[in-house]
Automatic annotation (TrEMBL):
GO molecular function, one term: alpha-L-arabinofuranosidase activity
Keyword presence, Signal: yes
Species name: Juglans regia (English walnut)
Chief place of localization: secreted
The name this protein goes by in its record: non-reducing end alpha-L-arabinofuranosidase
Amino acid sequence: LLVNASEALGRPIPETLFGIFFEEINHAGAGGLWAELVSNRGFEAGGPNIPSNIDPWSIIGDEDSSLTVSTDRSSCFELNKVALRMEVLCDTTGTNKCPAGGVGIYNPGFWGMNIVKGKKYKVVLYVRSSGAIDLFVSLTSSNGLETLATCEILASASQVSNWTKMEVLLEANATNPNSRLQLTTTRKGVIWFDQVSAMPVDTYKGHRFRSELAEMLADLKPKFIRFPGGSFVVGDWLRNAFRWKATIGPWEERPGHFGDVWMYWTDDGLGYFEFLQLTEDLGALPVWVFNIGISRNDQVSTSNVKPFVQEALDSIEFARGGPNSTWGSMRAAMGHTEPFDLRHIALGNEDCWKTNYRGNYLKFHNAIKKAYPDIKIITNCDRFSQKLDHPADLYDYHVYPLSAKDMFSMAHWFDLTSRDGPKAFISEYAVTGKDAGKGTFLAALAEAAFLIGIEQNSDVVSMASYAPLFVNDNDRWWNADAIVFNSSQLYGTPSYWVQHFFRESSSATLLHSTLQKNTSTSLIASAIMWENSDDSKSYLRIKIVNFGNDTVNLKISVDGLEPNSTIQLSGSTKTILTSGNLMDENSFNEPNKVKPKQSPLENAGKDMEVILLPYSVTSFDLLKG
Ligand code: AHR
């Protein structure tokens, strides 16, 4: 492999080449990145009708003799009127005695709440009652027998005759990843509950993201976050699509919605504001995907799409407007006076082929460009195979081959594409099907090759992100995914680890590199040069994927270095990702089975003989000195 380290012969890689795509799929946010422990906190999962679906809330006690539970529309929150009504029939005296521990309701969270000894949890609930209350708010084991933390709330009838917000701080005295939140009493009477929340006090940057999951994202050093979908944005029906205005402001007032593509309810605690906050917390730029009046099954006609266009304009004002603007002031009221750095809007997702797409797109495009000429607009029509019939700054392109071999050959997909016109945003790529399993080494290896191809073609590909990002192991809608978790455990799949090889690529210089003609066709390589912000030193990274079954002995020669510059032995490293079996996967039991391994590069220099293991990704980080 010949690498020319001359910057003059190289090419700057776009600043935002590699990022992440967050979609509310597989309970990625609700029951995932969003640290809320209570599932269906407003009892609203059935929508505004009553009786509502209170699942997964359940009853403690005997429904015939000790309590009755129903829903009504008496909440103090206008957009989510459903409240839970609990009538307690038993008490501590008389003939109908409550069982020890009382009666009430419990919420098991999203397949169990992870409660950790010594950690604090803030529980907030809204309560109203016909009389005085004596309520125990507790975190317990899944059968209620072991109490991890509890607090008694006593209030007189006059204190709770109207809806009252109660807050308690619970400190856990034991650890249990399968806990539940209980609200119990032994006092006869009627109590209404609404908007019951339990959150760990420690969250990522204090912004209510589950820390370990957010840290895995931070480790990828993403340069952008595309959100909140995908198909989640589009919806099966427009009435169920993501509507940003219903996801901002106080969490208690958000109506929540049923995501009808991935079939689950979200309370929308993780709303538009929180997504913008996440991008800022991770040092990434937001890529805001907007529904342009088209779902999978219905469409707004172009002549009626104006209100939808206004919604998009308002969303931009919310992100970027001054604190005195109508929507910017809402953002400021939520605690963020400064604007967010919103520069990209994607119009729709996988709906270019719909009858109204072009007409609706143009309405959005023209209005947004008029108000915000600098915003980059992303179409999802395919510029790869034909010229676009509408203006766009980027075009969205999804790559989901059904085999690893196909993904490997797609590394050269963009080599021959036209160099004119809008550049590609490969916002979703991953091997799917049998080769992908639930996240195999084989799929990751092919994706590494594909990403090398993207790097090589970064003059026509500006952005790329893997999909999907997260899966809660209890709700696998889509295989494979980058990060797998349950209430307390998590691991990166090999596809997650492959992305680590590309963390330094955005903004780096792509160096000119050529594999000798007689090298195996199973190899693909690229070389970059970048300055490391940790030690302010300059590095060359040569990445090579060997997609074949043979060990390859390869000579790497670096020329074009400045006259008094060389490659330092000390400080140069080699990182390898390989595995005993192509179908190897990580798991909760073996989270590090397939993970890159770094070691000093003992023969680092301008000329090196290296060994590439069969089926491997290797990166050589050469310290320039
Ligand atoms: O990544 C999962 C889904 O794949 C996305 O929601 C959609 O855009 C694509 O079809």
